[in-house]
C-alpha cells in the first residue's frame, strides 16, 4: 500500500517511512474481515473513527504562514505536500519542498486535484526558483470543494469555522495552532487560497489590499464566534467585513425559535396531536391502566366550594445511553401551579441523593469489588398517599354522561406540589419495614446489615441505585420491591441522570459523552474545532453581564470546544479489592483572582480509595489580606466537607474510617490551623473560619503539606495551561475512555 501511494503521486523513495506510517494510520480506520467488519480503531476505543479529516497522500495543501510582521501583499499561505497525520492528534504532517522540512499544522486547506512535478522533491537550486517552480506547477480547479460558496466571487481568507473545518484542532486554539518540527515556537498565520487557472502568478500580479479588522484578544476565535455554522475554513472577505447576519448564527437562532414555538418533532405538544399517532395512544393507555390498577382516584360529585385542578398530558421520548429511542412515555400530570401554599398543601420537600453520595457509593463498590444495580419505580408518584384533592377528568378520558363529575385523588399525581413528598414518605415507610436504616448524614441513602452481607440503596426520586457484598441479598431485595411497587429491573447500572456508567473487572468508568454530544448539537457546535483547555490563561471577563459582547460569546464557545475536545474522557474508579478505602482531600486557593472585588477562589477535591468523589470551586466571601488567609479560609471550607464525608462513610460501611488527610500547599495556613500563631496577620479573621482548629485538635481532620506542583485542587482555582491541566487530569483519574479498560496505577499515592 505504501509503494502504491508513493507511485501514485510520483514521490521519491526517501518518503517511504512517512508512507508506511500513513498507510498504517488508514488501515487502522478501515474495516477488516478479521473483526467482522469492524475497524481496528473501533475494536480498541469502542467508538467509530472519524475519517472526515483524511486527505489524499501527497496532495497539495496550503499551510498558514506564521512569520510576524507580514506586509499586506505577502502570501498568507505556503504550498506544501501532505505526508500524513501527527500521532495523538488530527494535525497534518506537511512537507515544505523549498525549506526541505516537515511542518506539523492543523491550519491547512487542501486541493487534492492539483498536479505536482517530481523535480520539486529534489534538492539543490535557488530557493526562490524552487518556490516559483512550485507555484507554477499547480493546476487549480475553479470549483474547489473547500471553498463551499457555490461559485461566489471574491478574495478568500481563513476564518477557522466551527462547522466541519478542513482539519479538526490538534489542541489549544492559541497555543499549538501550528508547529514545525525544526522550529517548535513557530505560530499560526492566515491562509491565502490559490489563484484560479489562467490568472497571473502571485509574483507578477497586483492584488488590491484587503481592509484589516481590529482583532479582539483572540482573533481566530472571534471570527469563529460569528461563523460557527460555516462548513469549511474559507469565507469571502465580503462576508467577514459586511454587515450581513452570519449564516450559522442566523440558522441556529431560527432553529431555537422553532423549537420553542413548536416543540420537538418527536414529542407532540398536545393531546390532539398525540392521539393521531399509535405509539402515543398506546403510551396513554398504559398510563391510564397504571392509574386504575393503583386505585389513584374515584369519580365523585363535586363538593361545595370545590376547585378541581385540571390535568394535562405530557409526552416524552425515552432514550438509552447511545441516544436510541427505547420507549414512548405519556404522563398524566396535574396543573399544580394553581395550588395555594397553606391551603392546598403545606410541606413539599423530598430528599434526593446528592451526586457526592452517589459517587461515594460507586467508589466504595469499586474499592470493594461490588457490582452496582439499578431499578426504576414505574409511575412512582401514583403510590404516594394524599389527603382530599380533587382534579378534573383527563382529556380524552371523560366519562360520557358524567362530564360534571370530578376525581377525588387517593394517591398522588405528577404535577401536584405535594406529590414528591408523599411518594418519598411512602418509600421511606416501605424501606424501614424491610429493616433498612436511613442515614442521618444523607436522608436519601439507606443501609441494611445482614449475616450474608451489607446492602446499600441510594434514592433519587424513582431511581434506586443498589450495591452490596452479596448478590443474593440484592436479588432478594429486588423481589421484595417488585411485590410492593411496579418496578423495572434495569440490571447493572449503565445510565444514571445523564451519566454513562461502565462496570468492568478492572474498575468503574463514569462519562457523559452522549449528553455532551446532544448539548453541542443543540448549541450549534456539533462539529466545532476542539480545545484542550476550558479557558484561556489569565482570562478576565464579567461574571454577570446584562448584554454580553462578542468576546463573551467567544469565551463561552471556548468552553464548548473544550467539551468537544474531551467528549470521550471519563472519570475512572479502579478496582482495589481487599484494600481499605481512606479519605484524602486537597484544598487550594488563588490570591485575589477576582479583579473587581479582589476576592480569591477556593478549590477542594476529595478522594475515596483513589477515586475522586467530591469537588468544589467557589469565590470566597471575604477579601483575603494574604495568601495565608486565603488558603486558611479555603481549608476551613474543605474541613466541613471532610467531616461530612467521614460521617457519611461511617454510616454506610458501619466501620470507623481513618481521619481524612487534608493537603494544603501553604505552611503558614497549616500552622495557623494548629495553633493561634501569626497574631498580627490573623487577628481579623472571622471566628467561623476557626472551626478548622477544633477539627484538627479533636483529630477529626489531619492536615498535611503538599508541594504546589502536586496540588491537585489547583485546577479548581484558576485557568491552567494545556500541559499543567493534562498532568492534573491524569492524577485525578480523568482519562480518555478506552473500550476494555486499563487499570490506572500512577499518581495516586500509597495511602490510597
Descriptive report:
The protein is an alpha+beta fold and 752 residues long. Among the domains are: 52-149 and 162-205, no CATH class; 271-497, no CATH class; 580-718, Nucleotidyltransferase, domain 5 (2-Layer Sandwich). The protein is 28% helix and 21% strand. The protein has 19 helices and 29 strands. The strands form 7 sheets. The protein has a 6-stranded antiparallel β-sheet with strand order 5-1-2-3-4-7. Strands 15-16-17-18-12-19 form a 6-stranded antiparallel β-sheet, sandwiched between helices. It has a 5-stranded antiparallel β-sheet with strand order 20-21-22-23-29. Strand 15 (437-438) and strand 16 form a beta hairpin. It starts with a helix and ends in a 16-residue tail after the last strand. Residues 59-116 form the Retroviral polymerase SH3-like domain. Residues 115-134, 158-205 are annotated as: Disordered. One of its GO terms (molecular function) is nucleic acid binding.
Give the key terms.
752 residues; Nucleotidyltransferase, domain 5; alpha+beta; disordered C terminus; globular; six-stranded antiparallel beta sheet; 19 helices
